[in-house]
């Protein structure tokens, strides 16, 4: 079997060069400058300086034996002002793709990994239907320039975060706390996906952050809590794309916030245009129960009264429980309920407090353990008949972890943010040897 092994990053998290060659601000440039939003007031201005160091980073990928590299394209580099096209922005990704191909690494671009041009947010952002059309136009520009060399396209990364974290909880850019608008953002992101699909050729997909949700007890209340979280995290996104409809129970859960009047005739046909692959980002499972006293702003609109229960497993520094069984259960479930597309794990990984040791190495045994367990779960899923075709470790490099700043290290390669020195961690060396073998 020709299983694809790779690693993933995203533009704002690694590129830096925030004003280089005509790039204008994205919502994350603005959000990270808003006091109190990102830990220590950190920004992606420099990040891993990948914009300037990409040839070295690609050499490193090649030394590790990666066969594919999942990166994202920064929309504000390509369309820095409304109605313009920035050739220098397109040139950057064109050079990146050429350099990957010279090293026999498959380029695997994502068109939207959260860096909406600020001028589009100023015009209403994702709750504004027009943003979906602008996204499709931008997708066509990137496709026109790269499609002679790129054959695998992902439209969106994790629209759950862009909509519910960004517009309901306010924990991500643009930091709005308007639940009704968040539901409109969900729809316009998905519409943007469908409109973009019409402009793309080759193999096209979308990446969703999905989890396996289990009720803490057998009570009907906990079962209902699990239904609601599964609805908001998984089915609100995958059902429109792969089944052509919003899940009725979730629409009912959200009825106090939205009548879904923003959904126009034909939209769901566009959203559910056939795609070739579904990217799944999996990190942690969800064990949930009814009843939450804490209240406050939450992305779980329509399920605020659900609480997360400690499953008693080890956790990463993100405080996420480690459970590879959740990945196996999730893959089996997706294969059963949504059998039409090839599956790729487009992100999976763990943050730990890594340090460079006196011997010069980074001995991240916890991450080696995490990756090996999850990769084994993938192997088991494939033995069960799941159509899983590839796996991308998150992340190639330590990088800007959104509201957590640089404090959360997800890389298999350590980055010293003072010197920009890259040091492959033990996990990178382990991964390099693991991917020489079939899944
Ligand atoms: O760093 C993020 C990435 O940008 C999207 N998926 C989850 C990762 C870890 O939080």
Plain-language structure description:
The protein is built from 15 helices and 13 strands. The protein is an alpha/beta fold and 439 residues long. A hairpin with a 6-residue loop joins β12 and β13. It has helices at 11-14, 27-32, 50-64, 75-78, 87-102, 118-122, 130-146, 159-169, 179-197, 220-243, 248-253, 267-271, 324-337, 365-383, 426-434, and strands at 4-8, 68-72, 106-112, 152-157, 203-209, 213-215, 277-281, 286-290, 306-308, 342-347, 388-394, 413-415, 422-424. α3 (50-64) runs parallel beside α5 (87-102) and α14 (365-383) runs parallel beside α15. It is globular and about 55 Å long. It has an 8-stranded parallel β-barrel with strand order 1-2-3-4-5-7-10-11, surrounded by 5 helices. It has a 3-stranded mixed beta sheet with strand order 6-8-9, covered by helices on one side. A two-stranded antiparallel ribbon has the order 12-13. The longest helix has 24 residues, at 220-243. The protein has a single domain, classed as Glycosidases (TIM Barrel). Helices cover 40% and strands 15% of the residues. Residues 10, 13, 158, 281, 347, 394, 401, 410 line the site of 5-hydroxymethyl-3,4-dihydroxypiperidine.
Estimate the mean pLDDT confidence. 98
Q: Largest sheet, described in full?
A: 8 strands, parallel, barrel
- The top-level CATH class is Alpha Beta
In total, the number of domains comes to: 1
CATH architecture: Alpha-Beta Barrel
CATH topology title: TIM Barrel
Heterogens: 5-hydroxymethyl-3,4-dihydroxypiperidine
What is the radius of gyration computed over CA atoms, rounded to a whole number of angstroms? Answer: 20 Å
Number of helices: 15
């Amino acid at each position: 079997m020709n299983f694809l092994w790779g690693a993933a990053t995203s533009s704002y998290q690694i590129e830096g060069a925030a004003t280089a060659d005509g790039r204008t601000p994205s919502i994350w440039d603005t959000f990270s400058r808003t006091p109190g939003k990102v830990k220590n007031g950190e920004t992606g201005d420099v990040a891993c300086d990948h914009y300037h160091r990409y040839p070295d980073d690609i050499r490193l990928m090649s030394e590790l034996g990666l066969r594919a590299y999942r990166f994202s394209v920064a929309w504000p580099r390509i369309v820095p002002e409304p109605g313009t096209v920035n050739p220098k922005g397109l040139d950057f990704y064109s050079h990146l793709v050429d350099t990957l191909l010279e090293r026999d690494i498959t380029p695997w671009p994502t068109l939207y990994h959260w860096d909406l041009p600020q001028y589009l947010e100023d015009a209403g952002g994702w709750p504004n239907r027009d943003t979906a059309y602008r996204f499709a136009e931008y997708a066509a520009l990137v496709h026109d320039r790269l499609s002679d060399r790129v054959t695998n396209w992902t439209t969106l990364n994790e629209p759950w975060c862009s909509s519910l974290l960004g517009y309901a909880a306010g924990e991500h850019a643009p930091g709005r706390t308007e639940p009704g608008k968040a539901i409109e953002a969900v729809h316009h992101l998905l519409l943007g996906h469908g409109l973009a699909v019409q402009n793309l050729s080759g193999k096209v997909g979308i990446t969703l952050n999905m989890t396996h949700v289990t009720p803490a007890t057998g009570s009907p209340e906990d079962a209902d809590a699990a239904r609601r979280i599964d609805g908001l995290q998984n089915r609100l996104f995958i059902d429109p794309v792969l089944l052509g409809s919003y899940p009725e129970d979730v629409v009912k859960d959200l009825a106090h916030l939205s009548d879904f009047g923003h959904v126009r005739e034909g939209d769901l046909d566009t959203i559910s245009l056939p795609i070739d692959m579904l990217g799944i980002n999996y990190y942690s499972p969800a064990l949930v129960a009814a009843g939450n006293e804490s209240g406050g702003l939450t992305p779980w609109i329509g399920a605020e009264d659900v609480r997360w229960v400690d499953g008693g497993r080890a956790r990463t520094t993100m405080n996420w429980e480690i459970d590879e069984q959740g990945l196996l259960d999730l893959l089996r479930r997706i294969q059963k309920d949504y059998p039409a597309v090839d599956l790729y794990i487009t992100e999976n990984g763990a943050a730990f407090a890594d340090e460079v040791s006196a011997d010069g190495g980074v001995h991240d045994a916890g991450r080696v353990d995490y990756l090996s367990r999850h990769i084994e779960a993938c192997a088991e899923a494939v033995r069960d008949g799941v159509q899983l075709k590839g796996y991308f470790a998150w992340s190639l490099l330590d990088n800007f972890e959104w509201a957590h700043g640089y404090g959360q290290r997800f890389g298999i390669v350590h980055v010293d943010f003072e010197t920009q020195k890259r040091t492959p961690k033990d996990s990178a060396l382990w991964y390099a040897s693991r991917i020489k073998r079939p899944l």
